[in-house]
From TrEMBL:
Keyword terms, alphabetized: Repeat
NCBIfam families the record matches: PPR
Example GO biological process: mRNA processing
InterPro entries: PPR_rpt, TPR-like_helical_dom_sf
Name of the protein in question: Putative pentatricopeptide repeat (PPR) superfamily protein
Claim: Hydrolase is one of the keywords in the record: no
Repeat recorded as keyword: yes
Pfam families referenced in this protein's UniProt entry, alphabetically: PPR, PPR_1, PPR_2
Similarity comment: family membership: Belongs to the PPR family. P subfamily.
GO cellular component, one term: cytoplasm
Gene Ontology MF, one: mRNA binding
PPR repeat segments: 289-323, 324-354, 363-397, 399-433, 434-464, 470-504, 539-573, 574-608, 609-643, 645-679, 680-714
Amino acid sequence: MKKTPISASKQYIHSLLKPYKPSTTTHFRRFSVAPDSPQPPSQELTQPIITQITTTDNWTTNTTLNQQILSLTPQSLIKIAREFQTSTKALNFFNFIRENENPSLSLHPPPLDSIFQTVIQLAIREGDYASIVGLFNLSKEVKVSLTNHSAIRLISYFSCLNKVQDSMLVYDNLDPDVKNTNVRNIVLDLLLKSERFDDARQLLDEMLEPDAKFPPNEITLNIVFPVLLRRDWGNRTDDFIGLVPKFGVHGVFPNKLLLTKLITKLCRSCRNEKAWDLLHELMKFGKVEAAPCNALLSGLARERDYKKINVLLKEMKENEIKPDIVTYGMVVNHLCKSRRVDEALDMFKQMKEGSDGISVKPDVILYNTLIDGLCKVGRQEEGAALMKQMRLEDNCIPNVVTYNCLIDGFCKSGEIERSQELFDEMNNEGVDPNVITINTLVDGMCKHGRIGNAMEFFRKMQEEKGIKGNAVTYSTLISAFCSVNNIEKAMALFDEMESVGSPDALAYYSLISGLTLAGRPDDASFIASKMKKAGFQMDLVSYNTLIGGFCRKKKLDKAVEILKDMEENGVKADGVTYNTLISYFSQHGDFESAHKFLKQMIIDGNVPTVVTYGTLIHAYCLAGNLDEALDIFDKMLVSSKVPPNTVIYNVLIESLCKRGKIDHALSLMDGMVQKGVRSNTTTYNAMLKGLSSKNRLQEALRLMDQMTNQACNPDYVTLEILNDWLDAVGEIEKLRMFVQGYQVSSAFNGSDLLLVQHLMVQTSYWFNT
């Protein structure tokens, strides 16, 4: 540690350091008597003597008083020193005793260090920094050792004044024996608060040595641990965590609360391994309870490290660390979240029965966890049975959370009536619903086509229960009404929401999406502007929705305006954005702009998808530019990692057939087989129509057999194509075999079957069968 001289008023220090000059008058010097010389009788210390000494300064001129002082015992001298009211008088008394001392001849050396301690205490009480600095310098000059108490008082005083260097100078000048654990604790606390961590670590390492003369105590640990918990030590975490078992060597261990906090911090910092090692180090000392184990179990569960969870639970049993309800609750919770509900139920059973020798009574939180877990995997009836069990077996009263879990489970399974029965039951049981209950039922009704019932229920809750609903309630209803194109009702709810409270981002998103899908992108854009004024940021999905809406309305200027706003707000375009724009320009024949956005899409790090390529190919085919479409297709095969799908093949095959390029179309169809892309009815219809235009019957018959082998069902278009063609060439029997092979009675719905029958009547085939 760097030593810095203490600065103080030189003039004031000089006055303090003036040596005491006794009178030349001959008097008896108790402290200078030889050992074999007769000692004067010890003066009995009385209050009048104390008063006389502390109220006068003429100890040298008053021989009687002089002799009285010098005949006192060390304990009496200390007692007198403590009676002085000012540091100046106490210092004069100290100087008098020091000047009359002869340690080589005295049987009882005067307690100069204790008297000087009193001087320091008085000076600190007076609060004169210069005086205190002078006293410290005086102690060094006259070689009076500071006591532990003096050192602590001085170090603490300088620390309060934020004069760390002064405090450290005091510490550095102490005798080694004075630097006991208490003094070191004061210095350690000072260094840590001053963020001199290297110095603090050096001091702490000295205390943590196995054979340290002044080892750490509980106070040391309570000084160090809060700092460990408060800071992120980065790559030095291992060093500081390693301090904990070193404390244990000296029998000092963190209490349950501190250790739990430390384990929790490590786990939340994704340092489960460090937490694991630390806990196991302390297990060796037998100083671990359930709470820190629970903290580690929670961290392991977040990472789904069930292997270590099982190991830790086993080790808890081996080390006689009794798991509590929190332990079981935590493990059950994470098992349920991982959808391992049966394992959670087994653990619950073991906990109740005490199969491990420890029986723990479940509480309502644990029951709720299991009920929610059952409902999440569609076993809500078992959850309802468990609610009955909690009442009958464990006298646990279900609360609003219990009912909310069950209501949510039945709503998700579409059993709305059952959810309403549970809602009525909770009211009868005196369990008040909350806004989560209302939102759950409203959402369930809306998702299962009961929007009117949801609205009616919400109004009833507003009137009867005073539950006004929140942003989630309104957002759910707004989204539901938008989905059925009831935009006016959605807008009315949005206005109502604004009147009772501020809409949240979800409400704005729902309305923007609903208005856009309803073909009202201008209204959606107006809501987006209100959203920004309310302090919410548009997200990528909302921007894409608006851009798509304006493109469908052929309002390119508006779409570009939204795109610019999107860029200005730092929202990066994604594949959906670019595909929307590429599709728009392609459909309108502006292939230059389409390719410009395709290029920008790649520059921005977005990989073109099958939708991107399919949009361009389809647009080129519609524009009659088949060669360009095939060129993109070839590039897609060679350079792209995105394989073409059935839709792209169908577009190209149909276009080729329309232009009479049957062989090219057939080769594409063969390529589908090689690429593992399955042909569908649309593929075969395009190819059969093309073959019929060229009257290439054999290839058509081969494709019909291929359809049969692939179980690809024909539709009415297939039958129209084949009926007209095969009847004309006298091969209607082939059609009958083709239809029978596909079991027409089961392969078509009623309308398709009627159409087939109608076609057969036209060819006289139906009456001959």
